[in-house]
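Course assignment 3, question 2. Fill in each field.
Student: A.L.
Task: Predict the tertiary structure for the chain below.
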Amino acid sequence: PSAPSAPSTSGEPRDAFVLVRVGLADRAFDEIGDVKAVTRLAETGKRVSRGETVCVLKWEGFKRTASDELYHAVWANAAGDRDFTAPFNCDIVAFNEKALADPYKVVCGTEVGWIVECRVTRAEMRAAVNDGHLLSEDEYAEVCDAQEREQDAAASRAYP
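Answer field:
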């Protein structure tokens, strides 16, 4: 039989932790466009709280400003900064150095495009799921669909 895991400094067994790579879902690119720069705010090894800004994403893209009854859309260039926050209390293990160096090419909605790797307890992850901060794929799709319907309605209302 294997020996039990040595307790961590937090009092939890070592196997109570998981490593999670966090990045942007495909839907994020519809919202913010292309990531042009990533400014790291948290340091590797630092403990961060859920909702704490880990880095800032500088983005450029297009925003729909209006549409008519025939669904002709009017678009405008847009740019801005978006806080990238921790989805749960965790320790920052690493930043994706390739994403920091060339976010336009690397940051994407696949596993390769991750931004930060976190060490999180299973208990913290369960808490994030239970209070709605982490969604299943189906729940996420429902939220995205509702947001898209609202954006379409807002664009239609904006048309003169």
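Instructor remarks: The beta strands are 17-22, 34-40, 47-48, 53-67, 73-85, 90-95, 116-121. The two ends are 73 Å apart (CA to CA).
Grade: pending
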